[in-house]
Queue: 4 jobs
Job 1
Amino acid sequence: MTTTANRRLSTSAYDFINEPYLLSLLERRSDPGEVREVIAKSLAKEPLTVEETAVLLGIPSPELWEEVFQAARQLKRDVYGNRIVLFAPLYIGSECTNDCLYCAFRRSNREVVRRTLTPEDIEAQVQQLLDRGHKRLILVFGEHPTYSPTFIAECVRRVYAVRRPKANIRRVNINAAPMDHEGFAEIKAAGIGTYQIFQETYHHETYAKVHPRNTRKGDYLWRLDALSRAMEAGCDDVGIGALFGLYDWRFEVLGLVSHAWHLQKHYNVGPHTISFPRLRPAAGVKLDETYRVSDEDFKRLIAVLRLAVPYTGLILTAREPAWLRQEVMEFGVSQIDAGSRIEVGGYTEAGDAQVLEREQFELGDLRPLDEVIRQLLVDGYIPSFCTACYRLGRTGEHFMEFAIPGFIQRFCTPNALTTLMEYLVDYASPETRAAGMKLIESELAKLPDGPRKNALIERLRLIQETDQRDLYF
């Protein structure tokens, strides 16, 4: 059997993330003609090379940036329609052996409360989430021996086992430490969806500065190649990300695109999602503002990522304030969390106020799920809890076979509407229900007449008039 070390050397993303070369690309200034050529390629739904992405990052004028924003809006509509997928984070444990300078959970922080949920605690948290209407979760773990592959797999099975009337969690994603091949395989066998690992920063000097070398996370390559190991272990849906504010945001965008190309080349499918959180205040943390990302640059990085990776989901988290989330949604975001609590035990114990000594960082959007859904509906989006592709095997390479030709819209809009109807019937406030029924009527009017539309109408009727749920195409 090939060793982990040999596998890492043979497929390392390090070869794709040539730091001096990426930094040199940031020195260029782009002219309008080449910018428009790159935009045209992206609108043809072709992924951009690192060099082409750098062309967009080198735009010198606000007027050209407006063309990028408009292209990102169009590409979002063309590939994803007006759907926004919803999920919630569930923090399982805050123990950690790492000492990341930006994180409240770092081992040297004496201000934070440490806790790991028991099986009974997990069940109580999931019941609360189900009662609010959630169907999709991401479980979050610190990096600690307690959170072994076996422990994580048991947590996943525990979440799936929780049942409420007409409700259960249909997809569990993971945000946890890098594993070896055997660890990833054990967790995958528990039925997870996406395994998400953020590199935090692709810049070597900065990585070493914020991640002390005497911890496991101090090993840049171990973390960088983690998702390669995950792919080789059978996890065909993986998520990458960078923590914006640690280094130059433009470099991090190039790092993410380079990483995506590495996965595409070696495993025939890129990352399922890309995340781009910004640094946030946290208990016991003194933030370095040197590379703070302004709101305007935040909009730019989202638009560039949308154009660079047309078929990769972009996740916008509740770190950002509600007004900004509402504004940048149209630039290419396809998934958001809502009604989120990021303190361990937060869904049953925290109340409405933030408890900073129990959180990994401070949230910017504390609106409950129903309020977020209502705003999405008012803005013309379809809130979706759909999990059909994952449960029917339309993942990894198979997902791309459907998505790239655009056939996925045959499934996504109908499935989004059925999960929305579930929420409206079972959980929504009267105001949200009224807005949702109006949107469903509008979306049905757009669909061509035929057997598929008739089947969708029948599914929506069954959800309204019976206890049948989880009806998907």
Note: The CA atoms of residues 199 and 242 lie 6 Å apart.
Job 2
Amino acid sequence: MGRIRIRVHRKDTRPKRSTAIIFAILCAVIATASACTGSTGAAPAISDTVQASGTGQASGTVYGCATSVSLPKDEAPHSAPVEWWYFSGHLSGKDANGHVHTYGYEDVIFQFLGLTPQPIYLGDMSVTDLTRKAFQFAGEQDSYPVPKTANRFALHGGNWTMSGGSGADTLKASLPGYGLDLGLSATEPAVIEGNKCGSISMASLGSSYYYSWTSLVTTGTIVDHGVTLKVTGKSWMDHQWGPIAITGGGGGGWDWFSMQLSNGQQYMLFFIRDKQGQIVETAGTRVAPGGKDITYLTAANIGEKATGSWTSPATHIKYGSGWKVTVPGGQLTVTPDLRNQEVDLLKTQMNVYWEGDVTIKGTIGGATVTGDGYTELAPPVP
């Protein structure tokens, strides 16, 4: 889903205090940012009104909503306080000796408005090397005027670049040991998430607009420790924007799943937790094979339960590790491909979360299914 959590440890939780802290944090991590101001910017209202029917696919129609996701217009940056463009995917390729290498990857850029005179951009990237059984991550930061790119986006964080629109995208980024140069092309329509308006509640964390490209054929190259491999695979893209409480609001967190299954179905599942770790908001979307139709899911027909746990040796945060996920007509077992896929950017971005490549097995409608996915765990802010 493409999310960011700024970790703020504090005793005084009054709103003015937390706002001052987040200004200081973001000014500190963005070396190129100008002096901070006291303005947080206006938070746009998210309408909960759904008045018209539709498939949920983005076609430029507003579905009779007071406000709604409309593509391709909403591919471009907005004036929302927080926004992100998030890609994750699964790649494979052969080296010169014919050996197959497989990878998972995450590539995201966050945009923050109103915290400084000029917008702030944070980039996160990770590579899960399933052949080496290794995980690597890095972060970049930047500050520049919002790009004026109608119907598309063109962003950068340091030397990392990300651009695209209408389901055709390009990603270029590198970190120690790995470099990605990828082209992505949608094989199915975009999916409006949350409801037909594309708005989603995040409980104490706020709300946002949200759409996804859930089936992106991916080609390009990965540089693996100096060796360039041609790779192919499939990716997923999330775009969200709105008045999202990046400091944790009431101290909540979330579990998020993207799933691309062998029966052609795809799922987005999103479980918001309060500061005690209890699920207080549930949302999901099931995409039919070929992207022909979608179904909006709620706590009445989806659920998840961790089957194990893993404690980070770096941050000492305890995460779920392995999950049983209930969907309409079946149950899925989600298994991390590596236990340690924690993105620990506390020193540079005051941000930490678990973002991992996962394998999926289970049954739906009595038939066996398998698949690949990504899981994100953002633990409650202490």
Note: Helices lie at 15-29, 346-349.
Job 3
Amino acid sequence: MITLGQYYSLPVGQRVDDGYMLDAGELGEVLLPARHVPEKLKTGDTVDVFLYLDTDELPVATTGKPKACVGEFAYLKVAATTDIGAFLDWGLEKDVLAPFAEQHRPMHGGRSYLVYLYLNKIDGRITATSKIDKVLDDDKSHDFEKGQPVDLIVANTTDLGFKAIINHSHWGVLYKSDVHQRLSFGQSINGYIKHVRPDGKIDLILQEGKGARDKNAESIVNYLNAKNGFAPVHDNSDPQTIVNLLGMSKGAFKKAIGKLYRERIISIEEEGIRLLQKDEVDSINDDIVVPDKESVKVTKKVPEKKPEENIAQTLRVVELSREPIELYKILKFEGLAGSGGEARNIVADGHVLLNGKVETQKRKKIMSGDVIEFGNEKLNIQLEKKNDQ
């Protein structure tokens, strides 16, 4: 069914003095005014248009782009106030009306308000309301899933953080601890579903997964370049210090520096993190010195190809003086993580393969014969042979 307030691709009918007539199904023929007719349009073509009522209250088509469709929210500026309500600029020639009865608070000229557009059941007009809670139902069912990308509109602040409208349909919460940028009322922004609680309520986050790690890693490198290659923070620093310095949470920071450390871009030192120079990177790649922690030592390295990814790997035969040993400790002792905490995070995040399968148990017991893969490293675990054997 074709209704006002939506986009449609409609067939072009006869040409008239004022433009072209379009077949709008249940709405009948509607005019596409000449000023909105694309070049080379002709009878028999189809054209993408938005439908609404003109100043004579007749259905009309436009190739213009309103700031919202019926069923959506938008942050709109009051163009004029009258004795029947406020007219809001929504990007088309005719403004949209927010009647007094649909104003959460009295609207004033020149100010902007978050509104929802709907079809008035009395006269069929496209109408705006700023009574947001009347539109959104917290108990309405949904099928959102963790990690799902969504469109957000910042709608309110709470003691916990920010309330945001998800995909024009549901409320969600952005917690203060997860927000490290300036947000403003009515702002549209991309986000992700962080968690769906047992009661159906939704927690949100602005960044998620590998893309967020890459972006944060890039921000850290840019900061280091601007600060002579050094930043006085590391994985044990105070969370607020990290936020103040780099604008990201401690969890996001740890994941990002873990990525940079594994890629031999930074070193993690007692006083902070430092950007490695090319000669330092070459030295590390040529000869990785691993401390002997009584149970682990490197005996040799052999270049190997990983067929399924076609990337160069370094095969290390790692000898244990005793077994078993916990997985995360091997990553730490082998120099694949800057600390035990980072090693545990690497495993828990699913970045490590054990005998060809993803292993997320950070304290998984490793025995002779096991093979560990992480990044471009492959570790073949063997029990150290005694001299009398």
Note: Helices lie at 132-135, 209-226, 239-246, 250-262, 278-286, 327-333, 340-348.
Job 4
Amino acid sequence: MRGTMMRAAGARAAVALIALALGLASAGLPGCARDKTASQTARTEAQVLVGAAEVVRVETRRLESGVTFTGELTPSEIVQVNARFDGDLEAVRVREGERVQAGTPLAVYRPRDINDQLRAAEAELLSAQAGLVAAQNGERRAQRLLEAGAAAPSDLEAAQAQRAAAEARVQAAEAYRNTAKENADRLDVPSPITGWVSKIFCHGGDRTAIGDPIAQVVDTRILELSATVPAAALERVRPGTPIRVRVEGLPNETFTGEVDRLGPTTEPGTRQVRVYTRLPNPDGRLVGGLFASGRIIDSVREQATAAPVAALRTEGTQQVVYRLSRGRAQRIPVTVGLVDEEARAIELIGEVSPGDSLLTGVLPGLRDGATVRVLAARAGTNGTTAVAPGTGR
């Protein structure tokens, strides 16, 4: 009997222990579920994935702002040499592209026609002078006859008019003779300037009339750049403003100058103002007619805290950048200073420093504090790519 009671008590104790264990297990289940959910949330937290090319550095650099333009180079002097008289050309002494000094003969005339013109001019002068003597004698006779009462005052007036006309003919004949003598003394056609022969219009044996073009000479030691800028940019463009130019055919070289003068009116139909710049060209490497582009530099910052313009974002009324720091994005409001349109860079004023890493591009989910993973692509042996996280600064 006693043994039976002891076995029953043991069975009840075992049931109680099992119930206690089950109760403890069931009480612990909610805590385990919460831990598991939190772990999964941590593992699945959203990340902003960016390529290495979408991370740029803030740096200290020179920035320039200005007005861009396009235009054409022309020689500072273009002179067309025309014929001074009628005659036959003996020869043309120069060729296109040849350099000439002021006074260099470009062409020479045959002397026969010019000498004939001189003899004709001298004969005409002698005739005019003889006519003047006759007119003067006639005036004196009319004066004496008037004093003797044998002529009317109108006779004297007519004689005086004839004398004045004769004097005018003598003056014209002297001018003609002087021109003919000058032509005969110099049968060549001199270059009026130092430069290069750009065009030849005549050849040996051609006959020219007064005013016919013979040659064109240009001086390219200084080239003039003619370009247009918007009228709205006038406050940024003044005579003396520095200018930087790149020229067609010489893409790796930059030429500098300054604004020389501005056009007094806008171009018809465009509201553009013409700007002129003189570029020194002592070695003659530049030639007239080349297409040129460049920028009129109105502001310079030598030590600007700068970044590519792609790093700037507009959110509402604020301009911001996102800095990458220890794997997270930091939203930083900034103010834009100088804008360098040519370099596509901007000056940043705010809590950014040289060396900071900034995010660019369209990045869904980008916000302050977001986790950022920088993908650095590396080619695998099987053609796949592996990625490595970047933390930034």
Note: The domain at 49-62+302-386 is CATH 2.40.420.20 (conserved putative lor/sdh protein from methanococcus maripaludis s2 fold).
